[in-house]
Write a structure and sequence with these properties.
heterodimer; A: alpha/beta; Rossmann fold; eight-stranded mixed β-sheet; four-stranded antiparallel β-sheet; about 25% strand; B: mainly alpha; MetI-like fold
């Protein structure tokens, strides 16, 4: 990771989040580390079940039982420069962190807003919850928030109920809600997945602009590498609860150091792809098999059963090692990828 | 619930849809008449409620005594009106009491996993008792008075509400917007009241209407059995209890308070059914 340690706002160190279901233990997040620099965007990429959402819920401490942080640290540097470990912070103090320091937005813009209250009401609630301002002032600030996220006719839209808005508009409203109290870190869990492509691009533009204006850091959780290229500075690729590759976005797209990342990229259609010689169709290369269950991981490299490069050595669990300067890979054969 | 709320009718539309149903309309009208009569009792009753007139004892209904007189010559119509005040008051108080206890228990059980099992088991245990039997036991333990009857019936009916509230809380707690609210630092009590309770208004309204009806019926039952309010206080239950001894010679003594009970319970049930049909989208039929 290129972010220098002193510039880091959030450092996740060896995070382990397990779900204990009777005798079975699901190691949903196992030994995950990454650093988020001030004003930077880190994309956490992975398939369903890779542990990327559990990672973000762990940072927010919103895990539902039996999920539990069993190890590691989540070091957050406050505005005063003090470093606090969110993994061990008492719930009472954690409540002050949520929304004010770190805010989170979710995938479903359709259902992430309470249908019973107007959008303005909900943004005002957020503002008044964290700051002692009058109703009038809160409304004025709510209007400015909606203007900030480029909702047209903000004054009128304040009195709209969520169902009166389109999906893209609702996600903007959700972003306004999350940013109402000027959080320093925004965790966005697949915020564009439920939107169609043009709206997706608009929301990404918006997030980039807001980041430049407000200087916040973003943890962007997604399975879509195309989106990653658009928005991220650094990328963390997760597979079966572990980080398998981490690098600056350009390094990662230039040269993958893990067969899984390479496989993910091979699944994305690109202009100028080779056409099949027989029927002239473009063929994408899927990764064979599925993500292993986190309750029954292979003893060695967890990607080995699906890996085209797997060798006998892969029976041993590979460590996360620097494959190139600032480029980490969890693969024995990173040089051959 | 999210999708439900989105296409739920607005308040004005809901009221219009409700009134369009004939049964609901009839229910509301009967209820209004009974409530108005009870509230205005001191002004519209022809006699004071406790005026004795031994010469006029056990008189059948006539132009002077519309509902006849009782064994002390007190006017049946007057007493039925005054009794209505108490019966309705008991009903309202029981609903309020049951709501406070039931909603609190239900929300707590639904929200805090650790308290869920103990509270849910207590609710189940209480619902396993027959209503009247439990009420009698509670009144016996607390000593008979109007307040005791209200508290006892409130305790009897609170589990019904608690169960409805708990079940809905369990669903709403998992909705994305509740998680989103938590992720933005909204405190738990605020999520419970603002996000969860607001969503529960319709089922609580429906249950409340039914509990109102059951409570009036149960109060009459308790008074009839002699474990409710003391016999000199006119409620429909005590009136029927008093008339029971004279049912062979003066059946009007039981008939009119009986009709009053039937009409008020019936009208409440009609309104409750209407509300449930309207507010439960699975039962909502386009009329």
């Amino acid at each position: 990771m290129s972010a220098a340690a002193d510039d880091a706002i959030l450092r996740v160190e060896n995070l382990q989040t397990w779900f204990e279901l009777g005798s079975r233990v699901a190691k949903s997040v196992d030994d995950v580390s990454f650093t988020v620099g001030r004003g930077r965007t880190v994309a956490v990429v992975g398939e369903s079940g890779s542990g990327k959402s559990v990672t973000s819920l762990s940072i927010m401490r919103l895990l539902a039982p039996p999920g539990r942080i069993v190890g590691g640290r989540i070091l957050y540097r406050t505005a005063t420069g003090e470093e606090i470990d969110l993994a061990r912070l008492p719930e009472s103090r954690m409540r002050g962190v949520r929304g004010r320091e770190i805010a989170m937005i979710f995938q479903e813009p359709m259902t992430s807003l309470n249908p019973l209250y107007t959008v303005g009401d909900q943004v005002m609630e957020m503002i008044r919850l964290h700051e002692p301002v009058s109703a009038g002032e809160a409304r004025a600030r709510a209007r400015r928030m909606l203007e900030l996220v480029e909702i047209p006719a903000a004054e009128r839209r304040l009195d709209d109920y969520p169902h009166q808005m389109s999906g893209g508009m609702r996600q903007r409203a959700m972003i306004a809600l999350a940013l109402a109290c000027n959080p320093r870190v925004l965790i966005a869990d697949e915020p564009t997945t439920a939107l169609d492509v043009t709206i997706q691009a608009q929301v990404l533009d918006l997030l980039r602009r807001l980041q430049a204006e407000l200087g916040m850091s973003i943890i962007f959780v997604t399975h879509n590498l195309g989106v990653v290229a658009e928005i991220a500075h650094e990328v963390v690729v997760m597979y079966a609860g572990r980080v398998v590759e981490a690098a600056a976005v350009n390094d990662l797209f230039d040269r993958q150091r893990h067969p899984y990342t390479k496989g993910l990229l091979a699944c994305i259609p690109r202009p100028g792809m080779r056409r099949d010689e027989v029927d002239g169709q473009v063929r994408l290369t899927p990764i064979p098999g599925t993500v292993p269950s986190v309750t029954a991981l292979p003893t060695g490299c967890s990607f080995a059963p699906r890996c085209p490069l797997a060798v006998a050595k892969c029976e041993e669990p590979p460590p996360l090692i620097p494959a190139a300067p600032g480029h980490l890979s969890r693969c024995w054969r990173h040089e051959d990828v | 619930m999210a999708a439900v709320a989105a296409d739920a009718p607005t308040r004005g539309q809901a009221l219009r849809q409700l009134l369009r149903r004939r049964t609901v309309l009839i229910g509301i009208l009967i209820l209004l008449v009974i409530a108005t009569a009870a509230i205005l009792a001191p002004w519209i009753a022809p006699f004071p409620p406790n005026r004795l007139s031994i010469v006029n004892r056990l008189k059948p209904p006539s132009a002077t005594y519309w509902f006849g007189t009782d064994e002390f010559g007190r006017d049946g119509f007057t007493r039925t009106l005054y009794a209505g005040r108490l019966s309705l008051l008991v009903g309202i108080c029981v609903v309020v009491f049951a709501c406070v206890v039931g909603i609190t228990l239900g929300l707590v059980a639904g929200f805090f996993r650790r308290l869920d099992t103990p509270i849910a088991r207590i609710i189940d245990a209480m619902m396993a008792f027959p209503d009247i039997l439990l009420a009698i036991a509670l009144v016996a333990a607390l000593g008979p008075s109007l307040a005791t009857v209200i508290v006892a019936l409130g305790i009897v009916y609170a589990p019904r509400l608690a169960r409805v509230v708990r079940a809905s809380t369990l669903v709403i707690r998992e909705l994305p917007y509740v998680e989103a609210a938590r992720a933005l630092g909204v405190p738990t009590w605020r999520i419970m009241t603002r996000h969860v309770l607001r969503n529960l208004v319709s089922p609580i309204l429906v249950q409340g209407t039914f509990i109102f009806a059951y409570a009036m019926l149960a109060e009459a039952g308790l008074s009839f059995l002699g474990v409710g309010v003391s016999p000199e206080i006119p409620t429909w239950g005590t009136m029927i209890a008093a008339g029971r001894q004279y049912v062979g010679q003066a059946d009007w003594m039981t008939l009119f308070p009986g009709i009053a009970i039937v009409l008020s319970v019936l009208s409440l049930q009609l309104v409750g059914d209407g509300l449930r049909d309207l507010l439960d989208p699975r039962l909502r039929k386009d009329l």
